[in-house]
Amino acid sequence: MPSPTENRKADHIRISMQEDVQAKYITPGFENVHFVHKALPEIDREKIHLKIKVFNHEFSAPFIVGAMTGGTPKAKKINTSISEAVEELNLGMGVGSQRAAIDEPRLESTYRIVRKRAPNAFLVANIGASQLVRGYGVKEASRAVEMIEADALAIHLNPLQEAIQPEGEAQYAGVLEKIEELTQNLQIPIIAKETGAGISAEVAKRLERIKVEGVDVSGAGGTSWAAVEHHRARTANDTFHERLGRSFWDWGIPTIISIIEVSQSTKLTIIGSGGLRSGLDMAKTLALGASLTSMSTPLLRPATKSTSEVKETLKLIIEELRNTMFLVGAESIEELKKAPVMVIGKMAEWLERRGFKPEMYARR
Ligand SMILES: Cc1cc2nc3c(=O)[nH]c(=O)nc-3n(C[C@H](O)[C@H](O)[C@H](O)COP(=O)(O)O)c2cc1C
Questions:
Q1: Ligand 1: does its nearest atom lie under 6 Å from the Cβ of 65?
Q2: 160 alpha carbon to ligand 1 midpoint, in Å?
């Protein structure tokens, strides 16, 4: 019989595919970020290369498929398609929370499959901050890493979801100390990863002090976990959590604000994610200071179908990135990061209120 965790994982996949779970009144902010078009790019499009070395790994383009799943038969299929595609294209991927398999070893194969199918790709293991507070430590984190022979470990920060989900564990007291235990004892980079509500400058500085190497900002404006939990509660006739999910649907720091805050306040390696939906969004994310970019939901449906669907989707967004680079005259990702980029309107106002100055927007 499936465990409650397995059922929850299955619900998350089903709801993310069938219901509207995207932010409604908050955006990631890309509409307020603009490159300066270069009518004389002075480069040839086909000479552009997207290679980049991050976390000591060579990527063919700065992209990882964001953490989504594991722990159910459908999840195994999703993880198989994504891992085969990223192996062929030399990109990266994160697996979903490995709690299911740490608590129930019979589910390990739904995660292990990714290293089998992607022997060379950059793989990110995943455990939750609230599990750390509730008893996980170096032993469980090491098991997650070994399970997929991971290149990095993401600790997901999801206070919003824990606060809204009926079976949520909204206990975060002492979490920083627990993360520090991992940065001191594990031999691979630790990434602090939000799940759709963003990371502020203040939080990033605290993470940097305890030697976290990277942050995956996962800002607001894309997939909303409050929305996912709203739909789950509605199906269960749980009016209290249904309402909580609706009230907090658009909670969080927009993605571009989060990237700029972290990039201007720390030296952390940034993965820009949360509502990226095209290669143009990827280019903006990189120009604002991220080293890698990531999308989750846009790969979910293709992953339920086949490896080649995932590959086609990835190729398309990478071509969009290349196109943007052509139009700003950037032959490499390093040059893209130097391209002039403007932040205007609501996002500029938000930044100013937070004390960030226009001339500081890009990390040089
Ligand atoms: C079905 C689904 C399951 C997810 N599960 C996890 C998870 O287990 N761990 C995690 O860190 N993030 C998880 N996420 C969050 C994503 O990694 C990502 O941060 C978020 O969806 C925002 O990116 P997007 O707007 O491109 O979807 C999940 C997302 C989806 C859609």
A1: no
A2: 13
Backbone angles phi, psi at 247, to 5 degrees: -65, -35
**In sequence order, what are the residues at sequence separation of 6 or more whose Cβ sits closer than 8 angstroms to the Cβ of residue 100?**
3, 5, 6, 9, 70, 71, 107, 110
CA of 68 to the centre of ligand 1 (A): 5
CATH of the domain at 131: 3.20.20.70
Q: Bridge partners of 288?
A: none
Q: Which atom of ligand 1 is nearest to the CA of 277?
A: 26
pLDDT tens readout for residues 39-95? 999 999 999 999 999 999 999 999 999 999 999 989 999 999 999 999 999 999 999
Each residue's pLDDT tens digit, 182-227: 999 999 999 999 999 999 999 999 999 999 999 999 999 999 999 9
d(CA 78, CA 73): 9
Percent of the chain with pLDDT over 70: 98
Bridge-based pairing of strands 63-65 and 92-94 is parallel
Distance CA 222, CA 119 (A): 30
Question: Does 269 contact ligand 1 (Cβ within 6 A)?
Answer: no
If one counts the domains in the chain, the total is: 1
Q: What three-state secondary structure class fits 154?
A: strand
Query: Does 221 contact ligand 1 (Cβ within 6 A)?
Result: no
Distance 156 CA to ligand 1 centre (A): 10
Q: Is 16 in the pocket of ligand 1 (CB under 6 A)?
A: yes
Domain that holds residue 156: 4-360
Which atom belonging to ligand 1 lies closest to the Cα atom of 13? Answer: 1
Given the CA of residue 222, which atom of ligand 1 is nearest to it? 25
Token pair, residue 334, equals 């390093």
- Model pTM? 0.97
